[in-house]
Amino acid sequence: MTDQELLLLAEQARENAYAPYSRFLVGAALLAADGRVFLGANVENASFGATNCAERSAIFAAVSAGVRDFVAIAICGAKQGGRGTICTPCGICRQVLSEFCNSKLRVLLGNSEEYREYTLAELLPHSFGDEVKA
Ligand SMILES: [Zn+2]
To answer: pLDDT tens per residue, the chain (134 residues)?
Structure first.
């Protein structure tokens, strides 16, 4: 799967976002080592605290299916009606990604035509958990 194909899946996942409060729609496509792709979208809630981000929706779907080995995640976010822009994962999602992904996880941000690539280590240096998991 190419980066562009993974980003296109994130764009498509974004169409299922439920974001009536922020109107900021996010989709994520998480590529597992076995080639499967797990999609997620942000799901907001009137209580706000119960809101779940697209990235965590995707990783929870994957882990719930028994998959814990990942190589890349594409994230596409933008205000309703806009095209996906560079939307970095929030701190909670970075921490959750670090629970299941190594620091070399490729993180693709943008859309299928324009994107930036980071590693998880670049987005979450000195993460909590490495010592705990050792
Ligand atoms: Zn998040």
So the answer is: 999 999 999 999 999 999 999 999 999 999 999 999 999 999 999 999 999 999 999 999 999 999 999 999 999 999 988 887 889 999 999 999 999 999 999 999 999 999 999 999 999 998 888 666 65
Catalytic residue list contains 55: yes
Closest residue by Cα to residue 68 from 34, 20, 28: 34
How many domains would you assign to the chain? 1
Helix spans in 40-129 (H):
54-64, 91-100, 120-123
Q: What pTM did the predictor assign?
A: 0.93
42: domain CATH number? Answer: 3.40.140.10
Please tell me the distance between residue 113's alpha carbon and the centre of ligand 1 in angstroms: 23
Catalytic residue among 44, 55, 114, 117: 55
